[in-house]
Automatic annotation (TrEMBL):
Organism of provenance: Brevibacterium celere
Keywords on record: Hydrolase, Pyridine nucleotide biosynthesis, Pyridoxal phosphate
Task performed by this protein: Catalyzes the cleavage of L-kynurenine (L-Kyn) and L-3-hydroxykynurenine (L-3OHKyn) into anthranilic acid (AA) and 3-hydroxyanthranilic acid (3-OHAA), respectively.
Molecular functions per Gene Ontology: kynureninase activity; pyridoxal phosphate binding
Residues where pyridoxal 5'-phosphate binds: 99-100, 131-134, 177, 206, 209, 231, 261, 287
Protein name (record): Kynureninase
This protein's pathway: Amino-acid degradation; L-kynurenine degradation; L-alanine and anthranilate from L-kynurenine: step 1/1; Cofactor biosynthesis; NAD(+) biosynthesis; quinolinate from L-kynurenine: step 2/3
Amino acid sequence: MATLDRAECENRDLSDPLREFRYEFLLPEDVIYLDGNSLGARPKGAAERARAVIEDEWGTGLIRSWNTAGWFELPVTLGEKISGLIGGGAGTTVVTDSTSINLFKAASAALKLQAADAPERRVILTQRENFPSDIYMLQGLADQLGDGYEVRLVDDTEVTAGFPNTLTDEVALVVLTHVNYRTGRLFDLESTTAAVHAAGALVIWDLCHSAGALDIDLAGAGADMAVGCTYKFLNGGPGSPAFIWVSEAHQDRFAQPLSGWWSHENPFEMSPEYAPAAGSRRYLTGTQGILSMSVAELGLDIFGRVDMAAVRAKSLDLSDTFIELVDTRLSHHPIEVVTPREHEHRGSQVSIAHPEGFAVMSALIERGIIGDYREPSVLRFGLTPLYIGFAEVWDTVEALRDILDNRLWDAPQHKVRGAVT
Ligand SMILES: *Cc1c(COP(=O)(O)O)cnc(C)c1O
């Protein structure tokens, strides 16, 4: 193997089959953007699309645009595009609401299925290290249901081992985030789903940190339901709506508590009687933000032209390169690579821990290298294969080396925290 230096990184960029996709995004010239796992980059056409929605569809079309501009169909139109990326199958996915809200709907519906089939099961398992909103939503749901429903937290090691200790006959539902947001640990969709099913429980996957980063086959894995967001790897824009997927097997019995008019079989009948729509519209609630949804479509359309196997291959090359450079060039500093080194356990980010993590990240951001920081002491670098290259990984690790060697993080401006880290 060639020596890993900047020239070799440039060579890897030159032979990168995804290189051209970088030009689909607008990023500032002087920035290396390693936070696309938190807020994806802006697709080139975003401003033009927003302008067209405001001036033409809203300004001129006015209310007619619900029909003539396809507004009413957007949750399904975009859902079909996501479905292609997550192996959902036709008619199973919609884009709507936020991940937190969709998780509440999916978990409610899953518990209702279990209440009919196995009413003694009242426990929800989820990862202790899950993104906190997922845990909070499940706790809120369990409180709302009362009646013995409870959330139990399990360690990531327990999940990876196939739940040797916790998947008892009290468990109704297991909610798992596919890639740990902090460490980047990836859980195996297929074998984990099989383990949950073998114990008589249902599984909901949260794909926030894997949709658009990995090849996913929900239907092939036999999963029950899934949720995820579009503003991270899918580049939908700040606060763009999330998605919800329900397997064909459960679709007809999917009953959710947020049963607003958009989930009705005939919303404009204005009937006082609720009847759920057939198909994926039954996961909806009410009117959606059309501006945000319209812009989110651009990110999905880019993915429509991408080979996800190539994305995954480049993602692993990028993270291997990052880890190798940290190992070889930063070994004289107290740095620990938190992200698993085995490919089968790694998502699309590299997280490293340093005792002064917050200040170090602040110093990096000051020079235009944007990652983020998560408690405790973790520097996170999202690797988005569509617009990040190998030379940028090299430059990032070299900047880190300079900051650490010269203690550039040890300055007052790097100790001040904003509301969002
Ligand atoms: C980003 C993320 C969310 C965000 O939820 P919102 O409702 O969009 O705020 C939820 N769960 C996981 C696992 C995430 O990574």
